[in-house]
Structures are given as C-alpha cells and as structure tokens.
Amino acid sequence: MLRRLAAPLTLCLVMAGCAGDSRVTLDFFQFKPEATETFDKLIAAFEREHPNIRVVQNHVPNAETAIRARLVRGDVPDVLALSGNSVFGELAEAGVFRDFSGYAGRQAINPAVQKVLDDLGTYRRGEVNGLPMCTAANPILYNKAIFDQHGVQPPKTWDELIAAAKRFQAAGVTPFYLTLKDAWTALPTFNSLAANLAPPDFFAGRTADRTTFAQAYPDVARRLAELFQYGQPDRFSRGYDEGNREFAQGKSAMYLQGTFAIPAIREAEPDFEIGAFTPMERLVTGVDVVITMPREPRRPRESQLFVDYLMSPEVIRAYTREQVSIPSLKDAESDDPTLQPLMPYYAAGKVTGYPDHHIPLAVGLERLVQQFLIDGDQRELLAELDSEWDKVMERRS
Amino acid sequence: MRRNWWLTALMAAGSLTVLVPLYFTVVTALKTPEELAGAGFDLPRNPAWGNFAEAWELTNYPQAALNSALITVGAVALTLLTNSLVAYAIARNFHRKLFKGLYFYFVSALFVPFPIIMLPVVKQTSLLGLDNQAGLILLYVVYGLAFNIFLYVGYIRSIPSSLEEAARVDGAGTWTVFWRVIFPLLAPMNATVGILTFLWAWNDFLLPLVVLSSPDAQTLPLVQYVFQSQFNTNHTVAFASYLMALAPVLLVYVFAQRWVISGVLRGSVKG
Amino acid sequence: MSRAYYWMVVPAFVLFFLLHTVPVLQGFYYSLTDYPGYGEHAFVGIRNYVNLFKDDRVLEAYLFTFQFAIVATILTNVIALAVAVGLNARIRFQTALRGIYFIPNVLAILIVGYIFNYLFANSVPAIFGGTNLLADPDLAWIGIVIVAVWQAVAFNIVIYLAGLQTIPEDLHEAAMIDGAGRWRRFWSVVFPLIAPFFTVNMVLSAKNFLQVFDHIVALTNGGPGSATTSVSLLIYTGGFQGGEYAYQTANAIVYFVIIVLVSIFQLRILQRREVTM
Q1: Chains touching C (3+ CB pairs < 8 Å)
Q2: If you ran DSSP here, which 8-state letter would residue A268 be given?
Q3: Does domain A140-285+353-396 have CATH number 3.40.1280.10?
Q4: pTM of the prediction?
Q5: How far apart are CA B112 and CA B120, in angstroms?
Q6: Domain residue ranges in chain A
Q7: CB nearest to A60's CB, from B123, B126, B229
Q8: What gap in Å lies between CA B41 and CA C244, rounded to an integer?
C-alpha cells in the first residue's frame, strides 16, 4: 500500500520542483562558499544565452564529505567545481570524472597548471579528468595602513617576519588574526613552510618508507608554532568568516590566509588596501577551482555547454577578477593590486604546489595540526603524522 | 492545602536554565551586529526586524518550512494509519509463532545504530528514486515500525477482544473491525505515536542530510546547517533563522502542551 | 483465522526487509571489502576489523563516547529525578513549570547546539571571564555534556513524574509517622517504587548518548584536534570525508555489538536491583 502511495507522491513532488518549466535543469555542485555570488552572476548570464537550460547552484558545508555522499548515491552532479586537492585526485583515479584529453577548449590552458592537476591522479595514464579554471597562492595578507602607520616594510625573510610580529605586538597591535576554530585555517601556513623547508621529494620518500615526518618536518612544526604565538587570545574560538571580517576591520596587521580569502575580506569593505607578501623562497600555489563533469553524464550536451562556458577565457577572466585569483590561461597575468607583487614569483618559476595535497584526508592533517597548536607537542604531532600515514597506507593496500 | 513557597521559588529559578537560552535567542535575533558586544543579554535598543527578512531569503524559508511540514505531516499520518494496522494483526495473533517472530524482528531493529545502514540506505533510496521528500516519509514510516509496534502491541493486547467479537457477530470482517472498532479505541496511543513521530521527523538532521539529494528538498534543520557555510552573514541573522526554525514546533507545543507531555509519557511508561 | 491478518503485515514486512534488513546485510558485506562507496571493490576478509583494533584514533573515539555517555547519563538522571521530585511536591504553578521544563525536548538538537555554541564562545567568557570552553581540548567535552543534559533532562523529568504519581499518598504519611527523615523517606520508600522508571531512563539515556552526533556537529565538529570525536561522528566523517567507507562500516558493526552488550548489561544489573530492593 505504501509503495502504491509513494510512487505518485514522488512524481508529484518532483514535478512540483519544476512545475510549468520545460527547461533542462543542471545540477552545478561547487565547493567554494566565497564564490556563491560570483557563480550566481555567471549562471544568470549563461541562462540568458541558453534559455532552455536552468542551472541550480549547489553548495554545502564540508563539500568533500557531501560530494562523496553524492557519489555513494551514484548521483554525480552534472557539472562540478572542485578544489584541486587530494580528494579530487582520489575521485579522478576512481574513474568518476570525464576524460577531457581530446577537449578543444584545452588549447588556452596553461600546460604547467594542467600538469599540477593531472599529477594529483587520473583514471588512466594520459587522461585529463578536470580543467583548471584558476589558481590561488598562499602568501601572507597584510593591512597596508597599519604597516605604513608603524613604518614596517613587508618582510622578505623569516627573521624579518618575526621581527615585524614582535614590533606590532609591542605596539599593542595584534600581529595575526587567527581562526583556529576552523582547523583547516592553519593549513595555508603549514603548506608554505612544508613546501620550502622539507625536501622536495619528501612524499616519494615517505611512500617508499625512506624517510619520515619525524625526520623531515621538525622545522616546519617549530616555525608553525613560533608564528602562531603572535595571534589574538581567543584564536581557538574564532572561525574563518569571523577572521575575514575582523581583519577587514583592522583588528590585526597580518592575516595568514590564501588569496582566495581576499574577496570575502573586501566584501566587508576594509578602509585600507590589502597587501600580500611571502617571507619564503618559493610561493605555494595550487589549482583553486577545477571544472569537471561525470564520466557518464546524464545530460551530456547541456553539461558540456556549461563547461565550455565556464572555461571560456572571458568567463575565466570575469571569475578571477571578482574572486581575486590567477587565471589558468597561457601567459595570464592578474591586474589585481593585491596580487601584483606575487606575479614575479610566477615569472621566475619560484612557485610550488600544495604539499598537503599529497596527504590523504583520512590522515586528518588539519586536526593533528590544530591539536599541535593547542598543546605545542611537536614530537607528538610528527609521531602521529607518521603513524596515521602508515595506518592509512596499510588500510589501502 | 499548604503550598511550599520556598520550593516553588527554587523550581522557578531552575526553570531559568531553560528560559534564558530561549530569551537569548530572541534578543540576539533582534539586534544589529553592532549591539552584539559583551554578554549579549541586554534588550535590543531598536528591534532589527530586518534580520528575519534576511534569514527568510537566505535560507529560502518558505520552501524549507513547506518541506519540513510536508514530510512531518506525511510521516505522522501514514505512520498512524499503517503501524497501528500491523500492530493489530500481530497483537491478535501473538500466540502464533510467525506473528510473534515478526514482533521481535521489528523491535530488534531498535538496537541497530544508524551508521551501519547509512550508506546502503543512501544507495538504495537513490536507486528507487526515493532520495526526496516522499522517500523520507517512507523511511520514517518504516523505521518507526520498530518502536511503534512495541507501543501499539502492548496497548492493543490490553483491549478486551469481546468488543471485536460483538462486531464480528454483526457480520463485520477483520478490516472493518479494525477501522470501526479498534482504531478509534487506539486514540490515546495514536496521540503518543503521532507526537513522537512529529518530533522525530521535524527535528531530524542526519537522515535528511544523507537521503535528500536536491537542494530544493531541504528541511528546516538542514538549511540551518547550510547556513553555516554562508559568508559574511551576521550572527544576528543566523539567530533570526534559528528562531524561525524553532518557532513552529514551539507554537504547537504551547497550544498542545498537556497533550504532548501526556502523549510522550504514555509512550515511555509502556516502554 | 482471517487471511486479512496476513495482508496487514506482509507489505510492512516486505518494506522493512527491503529498507532496513537488506541495508544491514549490505553494510555487513561491505565491512569485509575495501569499498570506498563508489567505483570498484575487492573482498578483503576481516582485514578492516583487524585494523580497527590497531587504530588508536578509533580507540580514542570509543573512550570519549563512553566517558561522555556515562557522565551525561548520570547527570541527566540525577537532575531529572531531583526536578521531578520538586515538581511533584506541593508547589504553585505546577503545570506551568512542568511545561517549561519540558520545552527542550521539542527543540531540534542541531539548532540548540548552534545557540549554545555562540553562548560558549561569546557570552560565557564575557560574564565569567576565561576562554571558550569548546576551544579547550580538555574541557570541550563538558560543553557537549551541558547541552546534551540540558536537552535530555526534559524527557526524563516527565518519566520520573509519572513514576512518582504512582506512589500512594498514605505511604508517605506512614513513613512520616515512623519518624523517617526526608532522605530516608526518599531512599527507602520512594526510590524503590520508581525503580522501573529509573531503569527505563538509564537504558534509554545511555543508548541515546552512546549515539551522540547532532550535538557534536553543532558544537565542536569533533574538535579541537579530535578531542570530541564520537564514534558516530568518526564513522560519518571517516566513511564519507576520508573515503574509508568499508573500514568505518566495520567500525559501525563493532559499535552495534557494543551497544547491544551495554543495554543487556544495564538491564541485568538494574533489574536484579529492582528485585532485591
């Protein structure tokens, strides 16, 4: 009896969702809460061009968890915008995404950026399972007004950075606004340190058991702890969105976030110019947004149209202008004043990928780092990283 | 009769632990972000009703409230009609091995933690096209069997069968006997099951989180969760949203308090 | 007997089998594989179970969950019993007060959690000084206990009230004439009579607290670090986010066995006491 009732009920509910609407609906899953409004605008323009397609933007907290739950359901969204991280690599290896190797739109994409993405994992050798839309970098953001007021120049070395932090602290200015309630907000700094202080072939060595975190990461942990001393007292009670707002209101001189935080900070209308610098040798950069679609799309034509649209140079430029990121196009430059000082790193090839993209999520890096920043037990952090790594690898083999 | 005023005062003071967080929610929902500083228990200077409008828009309140209402009403109605029927068949045949076995089969599910079945259910509901509001109603009705059978069977067995026999003598079949004679007698237990199902379906978080696939199908608790990922929204708007999500069930409770409490009570004393 | 009885139970049985029993069996099967939830998978025997016992993170989640459940169960029952005795005494505004104490039971835990999250982060430090309870790995669990107890007490009060109302008035009076003090009267007269209600409350609260999930999602999301990661949360985040679905399903099966054992154990102990008292 229930089944008999359920079927028509389902039907009417599904119909109600698109009552009187003959358009094809595309489910567009995107992981970036900061970019909701930008995507809304882009979608509106797309829908004007294609009146027979309706795009529904779907963004949720913990996008990584949500996307796996969707996969379990066998319900891959029609078009996806994901972060170019280890989860993307794992999903690509599992054969979830389409192969774009023969895709014409790839001509405009910077091959170096494409390679960074492909290195995360592909289903078969030589496949291209995602299209990089833009990249982001991990500098340190700073409040130019506060720097000018205290006569501080953007630090170029680690020692200068610590000196600057001490100087601000002495002057009663919070050097860094920290948002450790959201554990991941320690990772941009972790990545900058790991990419510059640990050997470049560390992960290959770790996989082959030739080295350990305990051997290669003490400096990373030590400097991380050193830097995070210079935060405000309630650092473990504040989250990312509060941090963006408070930094915009001039509550700290510097902010340890990637360039992806800039639009959210600007939206809070700071009355100062946001600067960016890195005290490290090389700038950490990664694929900020990957566009992809399912291997077996439900609506191949419409999905492809939307992917074409998102990957067109004009849309990429429009997106990156608003979201303050660097287009993944050949010879792309950013004219954003905050990003300007970072461009020479790109030109000189002094950029490197995110080390944490090589660490499986099941290791729980962000929780371990958060714990470390609370208790300061460096040996424990490194031992846990090694043992979690080993356990995850054993479970996978 | 002499009243103990000291104890009354003590109990009233204790009830503040319940009322103060609710008061806090209301005043925070009516503040502007600038008024948030400090402990936050002071009254808003100039009630910011706009918070509610903003929360209404951000969470797409009408849609979420409609989904919650639809799922809850559907689950309650179908649960009452079906679970009581199943329980009746079991209760009246409890001496038969098959029905007794069925009883323990249903009730034993009470001990299975949801995480075990979470993933297979997610797969299955989507396979059957049930990853929507209707599917959720079906899941509440079916999973509710475990506890509701337990409640109904105990209650029905305490109803003397002489009433049914009288009806049967008049030529009524089993179905008629159930709907005409037994179902009306179940009113108190129906109230209990109805209230428990209502609270479960209305407040549930994990099941809708994993089962519902379309953003258009989200329920009120879910949109509060989604709300956490909105950037540059203020705490005041968030609180307005929380209040709007709590308000319907609070209102129902205020008007049906006596019923709700006695209903819950009957369920637990039987259990 | 009437054929109608079969028609009444068969559809329910079929649906229940399909939507509950089949998933349980599937879950058990997956726990013996390396299935990430999608794509291909292989049979790995009991490897997941073996690895579970080697995983200190899993062990910590069990320890946390038990610590939380024991403390929360005891606090909930002590407070609920005290409030119920108070409400059952000769006080004014009895109905209104009873109504107020029951409110938390009708509210969604997730939303209550968000409200308390804000209170802990902002109001509590502003009034009492100190920092956010939830940001301290050693104290965060107390915050979760507070919210869980706040919510669960409501339900237990009502059950104890029902128990207290079954006690005839003259028993009290007889004990009073005997010159028994308040405490003696409570322990020797009242408590034995409401023991069955105590059993129900203890078993139900423990079962619910062992499955704690919503509270933690709203308050700490398992942090700081992994200080407040309960078993349910670990199964959810590890299985979905970490992509180790099969492994965490094995965890869920172990968890199921433990919950059943705890419930049986509690029933045995508490019922034996009821009899001897």
Answers
A1: A, B
A2: T
A3: no
A4: 0.85
A5: 14
A6: 20-136+286-338, 140-285+353-396
A7: B229
A8: 45
